[in-house]
Amino acid sequence: MIKSKLEFKSRVRDGYPGLITFADFIVDGQSLYDLYAKEFDFVSCLGWGSEEFQNESRLILMSKPDFQNGKNSIYICPACADLGCGAVSLFIEKTKDIVTWTCFEGSGKLFGKQFTFHFDKQDYINQIKGTYGFGGFKFPWAE
Question: Of 128, 125, 120, 115, which Cα lies nearest the Cα of 98?
């Protein structure tokens, strides 16, 4: 099994409802925003919004997934963060030492494509937790 490297990069999206600085997922040096989310005008679910919103325990499997089928979103609508607007989502599995992502879904060109990434569990958790507060603690539409 080949382990992938997960990192985050600060990205800025300027559009409705305002400027959003978010934490972009970088896997093996490649921006997932550039590959999958930018075309649909989604932003990462990490590093922006209220403190409660930024509690991403679901990505480290400490709380329920976003979807009934067990998937979690990683890119979402920047205007409302509602999953009904669409999302790039995946399955996350965790073993003693490895976190595995499989089956990206979004819309358009993503349907029918499958990918699998394996991450060192401790590094993955540290990277996810390191996005807390990346772009501040407010939603762009809040006053």
Answer: 120
Q: So what's the pLDDT on residue 31?
A: 92
- Helix (H) or strand (E) segment spanning residue 32: helix 32-32
What is the separation of C-alpha 13 from the centre of its chain, rounded to a whole number of angstroms?
15
Give the SS3 label for residue 129.
Answer: helix
In the chain, what is the greatest distance between 2 CA atoms, to the nearest angstrom? 47
Q: Among candidates 51, 62, 53, which has minimal Cα distance to 81?
A: 53
Give the pTM: 0.87
Q: What is the DSSP letter of 37?
A: I
β-bridge partners, 91 = 102
Q: What are residue 92's DSSP bridge partners?
A: 101
Q: Is 100 helix (H, G, I), strand (E, B) or coil?
A: strand
